[in-house]
Design goal:
The protein contains seven helices and eight strands. It is of the alpha+beta class and 252 residues long. It has three domains: 28 residues, no CATH class; 79 residues, no CATH class; 115 residues, Enolase-like, domain 1. A hairpin with a 2-residue loop joins strand 1 and strand 2. The radius of gyration is 23 Å and the shape is flat. One of its GO terms (biological process) is 2-oxoglutarate metabolic process. Keywords: FAD, Flavoprotein, NAD. Pfam families: Pyr_redox_2 (PF07992), Pyr_redox_dim (PF02852).
Length: 252
């Protein structure tokens, strides 16, 4: 489960020799791999939409508010231009794009009919989760699944946190899932509010554990209440109980 991370490294030459690829780096070292993935990022396909005719920059991402309304002079009068999905650069994931579209569709209808717009955090017409609770899965072997803030992001946000780690392979249900199951779970707790602000799982099929973590983060469920969410035995979901036990049981 180890990863060799080379920070600040610049490849100077790439050659293929049979079934292997050799990457030579600027510092004189080299890496041998089966294949090379060149991940150069993503750019919005907004060049040929006529955005310049309404004062927007072609080829750029479209900044939006939490109701998906494009910000700036383009909507200074009657609001009409919305942007959902990757084009607004909030959360470049298919499921987040669909989440944004549901909010945008509802708010467009509400504004068009003169209805009430609920744009408060976690309201009907906003995509608050884009900021605080984006679930994402990297389908590698092992899988990596996370939602909410990492420990570093929580610290940068000024939260007083505690990080709890637990070995997924020590959960009773892991042995039923696979022989030699290995993985890790991490829970990031906001100590002042007593709620979970981030969860990360690494291990086989951990994507299936993620939605329970998403509910805990989005719902801001107090840790004291989570003790009453009893996981079935023997399942990998018992990791929730183990994380809580590691954190410590509340006192009266």
């Amino acid at each position: 489960m180890g990863v060799d991370v080379r920070l600040g490294a610049s490849p100077s030459r790439v050659t293929r020799d049979g079934d292997e690829v050799l990457v030579e780096l600027g510092d004189g070292s080299s890496i041998t791999a089966a294949e090379v993935l060149v991940a150069t990022g993503r750019t919005p396909r907004t060049e040929d939409l006529g955005l310049d005719s309404v004062g927007l920059e072609p080829g750029a991402y479209l900044d939006v508010d939490d109701t998906m309304l494009v910000t700036g002079d383009v909507n200074a009068g009657s609001p009409w231009l919305y942007a959902v999905g990757d084009v607004n650069h909030r959360a470049l994931l298919t499921h987040q794009g669909k989440y944004q579209a549901r909010a945008a569709g509802e708010v467009i209808a509400a504004r068009a009919t003169g209805g009430t717009v609920d744009d408060s955090p976690w309201g009907v017409h906003v995509a608050t989760a884009d900021h605080r609770a984006v679930p994402q899965v990297t389908f590698t072997d092992p899988e990596v699944a996370s939602v909410g803030l990492t420990a570093k992001a929580a610290e940068d946000a000024g939260l007083r946190t505690r990080v709890v780690d637990y070995d997924l392979g020590s959960v009773a249900g892991s042995s039923l899932h696979a022989d030699g199951y290995a993985g890790q779970a991490r829970m990031v707790v906001d100590e002042e509010r007593g709620v979970i602000v981030g969860v990360t799982f690494v291990g086989p099929d951990v994507a299936e554990l993620l939605h329970s973590a998403t509910i805990a983060v989005v719902g801001e469920v107090p840790l004291t209440r989570l003790w009453h969410a009893v996981p079935s035995y023997p399942t990998v979901s018992e990791v929730w109980l183990r994380l809580l036990e590691t954190y410590g049981r509340p006192t009266a």
